[in-house]
Amino acid sequence: MIGIIGAMDVEVMHLKNRLTGSETRTVSGIEFFSGTLCGKKVVVAKCGVGKVFAAICAEIMILEFGVKCIINTGVAGTLTGMLSVGDTAISTAVVQHDMDTSAVGDPEGMVSGIDKIYFNADPALVLKAEQAVKLAGLNYVCGVIASGDRFIGDSESKKRIVAKFNAVACEMEGGAIGHTAYINDVPFVVIRAISDSADGSAEVDYPAFIARAAANSALITEKLVSLI
Prior knowledge:
alpha/beta
C-alpha cells in the first residue's frame, strides 16, 4: 500500500475523489481514505498543518496501514528563481529549518539523538517523481525542501533558509514526514507545487494560486502512483 499525505483539504480532495472502493477509518482524529488509485492500493489522508500533525499521520500510516512508501503532496513557497507559481519542487532531501539547538554547540537543523540534519528522499521515488512531472508537462526542480512550524512570508527568513540549508522550497510538513519515514525505514518523497513566492507577497499570491498549485501536485502524485 502507498501512503499519500497532504496538509489541507485542497491538497488531497482531488485524490480522494479519484479513489475506487474507498473505505474510511479515523485514527487520532485523522480520516484515512483507503482504496485503489491507478490500479494501486493507496491510503490518503489530510494530516493538518504543521510538523506534529504530519508526524502523527505518517506514523499511523506506517504502523496501522503498513504502507511501503509515503508521498507527501501539496503546495510550498519557492526559495529559488528557478521555480515560479505552478512549478514543482521534488525533494532530494528534507530539513527542519526551525530545529535549533545551536546554543549547546549543535549545527542548526540537526535533530538531536539521531544527529541528522537532512533526511534523504528515496532515489527511486525521486526518479519516478521526475518522470511523473514530465508526463504532466510541468517545470520542476529537484532539491532540498525545508519545513518549519511557521509560514515563511518575508525576504529575510527566505534568505536565511537558503543560506543555511540550500533549500529550493519551504513548507510546514515534509521535514517531519521524512523524519518519521527515516526512523521507520520507509521510503518517501515530497512533491510540492509552488503556490507563493515566500517573500512577503503571499497575501496576494496564496489565495489566488493555491487551488491551481494543489491541482498540479495532485496530478503529479496520481501519475507517480501509476509508476510505482
